[in-house]
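In response to the reviewer comment on reproducibility (Comment 2.3), we provide here a single inverse folding case reported in full, input and output, so that an independent group could reproduce the run without further information from us. The structure tokens appear first.
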């Protein structure tokens, strides 16, 4: 059931997961292929995703928010150290294991740092890019992804604080 345009995304995910051996990234045990499909056998994470957790809890305590943001940051840093940019970090792609620890998933949009070097190719809304990206081109995609993650965390914490008042 794999469409041709999805093939590159699934292969990219398989390639990255085969390199990523880290407690902050979902584990891939096997990849299998038949004449029509590519299968990824991955770790089962019974805790669900961060989106579901945020819906259930409504708001997180400051300590819980710090915990999840720290673990997500470690996962993103690990991927950056491998030489990749995730490009789709969002609560849906942060899964939780049985103990509540974060695991980064869904690497279909991931790209290598060496493949794309200019921010003109960075696919994002201008409001989610660092302010200095507007005034001058910047070579580092890490900065854009880090900015996006921190901006999202700030907005979520601000909303949680505002809702308590």
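Designed residues, in position order:
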């Amino acid at each position: 059931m794999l469409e041709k345009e999805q093939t590159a995304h699934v292969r990219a995910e398989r390639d990255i997961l085969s390199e990523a051996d880290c407690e902050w990234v979902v584990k891939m045990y096997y990849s299998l292929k038949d004449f029509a499909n590519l299968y990824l056998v991955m770790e089962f994470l019974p805790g669900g995703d961060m989106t579901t957790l945020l819906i259930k809890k409504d708001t997180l305590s400051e300590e819980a928010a710090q915990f999840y943001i720290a673990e997500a940051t470690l996962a993103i840093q690990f991927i950056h150290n491998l030489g990749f940019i995730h490009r789709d970090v969002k609560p849906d792609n942060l899964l939780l294991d049985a103990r509540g620890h974060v695991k980064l998933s869904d690497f279909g949009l991931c790209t290598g740092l060496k493949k794309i070097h200019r921010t003109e190719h960075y696919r994002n809304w201008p409001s989610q890019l660092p302010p200095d990206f507007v005034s001058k081109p910047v070579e580092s995609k890490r900065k854009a992804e880090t900015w996006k993650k921190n901006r999202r965390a700030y907005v979520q914490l601000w909303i949680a604080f505002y809702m308590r008042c």
